[in-house]
Automatic annotation (TrEMBL):
CDD domains in the record: PPP1R42
Keywords linked to the UniProt accession: Leucine-rich repeat, Repeat
Pfam families attached to this UniProt entry: LRR_8
Name of the protein in question: Protein phosphatase 1, regulatory subunit 42
Length: 300
């Protein structure tokens, strides 16, 4: 088992470039970037002497638990993708964190980020989930990120429902390729709230097989510049927006026409078509005919 300690940092050829006149402890205090990817690290020990860290690279290791980072109050970038992490926790003190990379782990619930008010990017793609499992995003965490999050990547996580993401109104880049989205109406409902969105990737979802799904999303996300890796031509966007507006106006006009027609025809129906019995004049006429019928001649 490899435990991340100060000794591991000292033995790393990438790091202990001792500055002239500095002892090792003094050197550690000057570190702002720590590169320890691919070192078979399974656990994070006490490295609190690196108190000025702003960027920490721990990807491609064997870490199972996020811990002992509470000292790093200046940390802005944390790279922990491709480890064995199952739970997001112990990050509440990292209030300057702006980019968090946790893709390729074993996370099933996105939680524990409620204190990270500066978080701009969250990368969670390709979690190694058990068969039938899907990534769940805790509503409390989403609400806490509503004003800060600009980039969200949840590719390939068996997700089939994104209604909870509606609160993320500051999103600019959204990647959700290779999931299970199939209801266009649900997507429209969410995207109607994302007025800052410029890039989106939904490739590999069932909804992409629906007719004119791309045209529909372009008219809903009016700020979108790139969809599924393809740029959106501004002339095409305006044409589709105008076409949609014309179609909706025509529908409203038809609905109004049908409503007016119903109001005019309804009294006519009630007067003449409903079974209210024969007209009194008809009854009177019939009675007269019966009384007028001549008697049979007595001379016959």
């Amino acid at each position: 088992m490899v435990r991340l300690t100060l000794d591991v940092i000292g033995k790393s050829k990438n790091h202990f470039k001792k500055k002239r006149g500095l002892s090792f402890p003094e050197y550690l205090k000057t570190l702002t970037h720590l590169h320890l990817s691919g070192k078979n690290i399974e656990d994070i020990g006490d490295i609190s002497m690196c108190r000025n860290l702003t960027v920490l690279y721990l990807y491609d290791n064997q870490i199972t638990h996020i811990c002992n980072l509470d000292f790093a109050s200046n940390l802005t970038h944390l790279y922990m993708q491709n480890n064995n992490i199952t739970k997001i926790d112990n990050l509440f003190t990292l209030q300057k964190l702006s980019k968090l990379y946790l893709s390729g782990n074993r996370i099933t619930v996105v939680e524990g980020l409620e204190k990270l008010c500066e978080l701009r990017e969250l990368h969670l793609e390709n979690q190694r989930l058990a068969p039938g499992e899907k990534l769940f995003l805790d509503p409390r965490t989403l609400l806490s990120l509503a004003e800060s999050l600009h980039v969200l990547n949840i590719n390939n996580n068996n997700i089939d429902d994104i209604k909870g993401l509606t609160v993320l109104k500051e999103l600019k880049h959204f990647s959700a390729a290779d999931n299970k989205f199939h209801r266009m109406e649900e997507l429209e409902e969410v995207f109607n709230h994302w007025h800052q969105l410029t890039r989106m990737d939904l490739s590999g979802n069932p909804v992409c097989k629906k007719a004119k799904y791309r045209d529909c999303l372009i008219t809903v996300c009016t700020s979108l510049e790139v969809l599924n890796g393809r740029e959106i031509n501004e002339l095409t966007r305006q044409f589709l927006i105008n076409w949609k507006a014309s179609k909706e106006a025509k529908k409203i006009k038809n609905d109004q026409h049908m409503t007016t027609g119903q109001l005019i025809s309804y009294p006519l129906t009630s007067d003449f078509n409903v079974g209210l019995g024969p007209h009194p004049a008809h009854i009177h006429s019939h009675a007269n005919v019966q009384r007028w019928k001549p008697q049979q001649s007595l001379r016959a």
